[in-house]
Design a protein that fits this description.
By secondary structure, this protein is an all-alpha fold. It has one domain. It is globular. It starts with a helix and ends with a helix.
Length: 153
């Protein structure tokens, strides 16, 4: 996304909408929270050898930091907050459809034998609410950092 933004800025002299960076920060933030938090809590065990450490720990921190320090939205728009979970929600729909065909989820975070449409909808609703709050927190954090940067200059 950052490479695409650099190309658009260079060629078209425009920036990509901040909400794209917000959805990416929320998506990769939840990857960090689930993989690192799950491993530290003992709830799950993720493989952090080799490049997996970069993908699940370093990369999320860099993307979230880049959003907060460079791409954070100036205004709180309801549309941005509501769209923040979009990428993760699309993934959850994909994973549920895949489950219907294969009988298992990609990462095995949810028990296969207890899954039904109602439970999937409840998980989706809970995930959407949590991710919306995370998106709002990122927007507010980015705004605070941007304000502090503008006061210093």
């Amino acid at each position: 996304m950052f490479i695409a933004d650099a190309v658009v800025v260079t060629v078209m002299h425009k920036e990509l909408p901040g909400v794209l960076f917000l959805t990416e920060a929320v998506t990769i933030g939840i990857v960090f929270i689930v993989s690192v938090g799950g491993t530290l809590s003992g709830f799950a065990h993720f493989n952090f050898s080799g490049g997996m450490f970069f993908l699940h720990v370093i990369n999320p921190l860099l993307v979230i930091g880049a959003y907060l320090f460079f791409k954070g939205e100036k205004d709180v728009r309801l549309s941005s907050v509501l769209l923040a979970p979009a990428f993760v929600m699309m993934y959850l729909v994909f994973d549920y459809i895949r489950f219907l065909f294969t009988g298992s989820f990609v990462y095995g975070l949810f028990p296969d034998e207890e899954m039904s449409l109602i439970i999937a909808l409840l998980i989706g609703l809970a995930a959407y609410l949590v991710l919306t709050v995370l998106g709002f927190a990122f927007i507010m954090g980015g705004r605070a950092i941007q304000r502090k940067k503008s006061y210093q200059s």
